[in-house]
Amino acid sequence: MAGVYDRFMDDVPYNEWAGFLHGIFKGAGIETGILLDIGCGTGRMTEWFAHKGYDMIGTDTSPDMLSVAMERKVVAGSGTLYLCQDVRNLDLYGTVDGAYASLDSLNYLIQREELVQAMTRVALFLRPGGLFAFDLNTSYKFAHVMEGGAYARVTPDAGYICESTYDRKTRLNTYAVTIFTPAGEGGTGEADGGTVRFDGGKAGGAAGAAVTDAGWGTGGGTGEADGGKFYAGPYARSQETHVQRAYTLAQVQRILSEVRLELMAVYDGYTMAEPSKNCERWLFVARKPRYGMV
Fold it and tell me: How many other C-beta atoms can be found within 10 angstroms of the C-beta atom of residue 266?
């Protein structure tokens, strides 16, 4: 996924979200210093903050994602420190002035104990008065927006199909993701025959039809569609499964209290609005007390 991640996520308003977080940190007096990006992925938001003058640390569990982030760092000429670490076992050289976890990365901690462990480690490395901002997908989003649905995203040379299933009892949402990349790109795994060729929807079943309808060609080499270039196969097909948990507001509030982080605010996504009952993404802002031990 790492090789095509940015292509699939180019509709995410990274700059807008980073700007909102920047305003929160500045409002708390954190205009310079060290920020920690938890689950930094390919480093797009990390390098945004580095450009603003912060000393950045980015952590992620995926070496492939971090490899892309390192390439972005070189292009930007920043001094960002990237570490391959799980937030549950976060281990830094010292404290940070602020931390954030965006794009629902903490939803992947599907056991309460895992979220407590992660929050405990973040609190440990926050300086007194430091802020921790993080977002979470809500149960409303899983149950009413995504549950039972399938959606696709295509680019001129790659695409994916995602099927979402939500279990209201366990509050677990499962994403079954099928990824199509030019043969030889995007990883070494194979599934369902490995290499497929788009031929008007015959190969790859419904998924093949979905991306072919988007204008992808057949055969090898490149072609043109709607005035632009597109890769015309063959494609490698791989599959991934992702699981996220929907926590309740009360659960998150209790966990923050347990790890002795003060909840400062909860927003409806990256806006100043209070969460509504139809809120799809919560943004929490918590602070480490200036006095007392965590």
Answer: 17
CB 174 within 8 A of CB 147: no
What type of residue is 73? K
Q: Which 3 state secondary structure label does DSSP give 22? A: helix
Tokens representing 67? Answer: 């490899």
- Residue 34 contacts by C-beta under 8 Å, 6 or more apart in sequence? 54, 55, 56, 57, 95, 96, 97, 98
Residue 215 structure tokens = 């204008």
- Structural domain spans, the chain: 2-138+247-287, 142-243
Per-residue pLDDT of the chain (294 residues; tens, 9 = 90+): 556 666 667 778 999 999 999 999 999 999 999 999 999 999 999 999 999 999 999 999 999 999 999 999 999 999 999 999 999 999 999 999 999 999 999 999 999 999 999 999 999 999 999 999 999 999 999 999 987 788 888 877 788 899 999 999 999 999 999 988 887 554 433 333 333 222 222 223 333 333 333 333 333 444 444 445 655 668 888 899 999 999 999 999 999 999 999 999 999 999 999 999 999 999 999 999 987 544
Residue 108 CA to residue 119 CA, distance in Å, equals 14
Could you give the CA distance from residue 173 to residue 136 in angstroms, rounded to a whole number?
Answer: 13
CATH number corresponding to 2-138+247-287:
3.40.50.150
